[in-house]
Amino acid sequence: MHETLACLIVMAAGLYLCALAAACLFAPAHARRFLLGFAQSRRVHFTELLVRIVVGGSLVTHAPRMLASEIFVVIGWILLATSPLLLVLPWR
User: Fold this and answer.
1) 42 neighbors 28 (Cβ within 8 angstroms)
2) Residue 35 — very low, low, confident or very high, per pLDDT cuts 50/70/90?
3) Cα 1 to Cα 7: distance, rounded to the nearest angstrom
């Protein structure tokens, strides 16, 4: 169950990044406005950090079953390691 949830989270994050890339290519003004909306409030900032931790943990958990697993483990640990750093930095 835990591994299935990690797989679904990794797939959702991948789809999100693909959609963001498409938006950057085909609607750059909308993508820019969307990206600049991050960390506009304390609540959004902490939500973003929570999502980073969940996706990072899911990458670390699911990476052994992926191609190029070493790369995804490193990316997951980077997300997990940088999230607490962003938590202590001022969000503005």
Assistant:
1) no
2) confident
3) 10
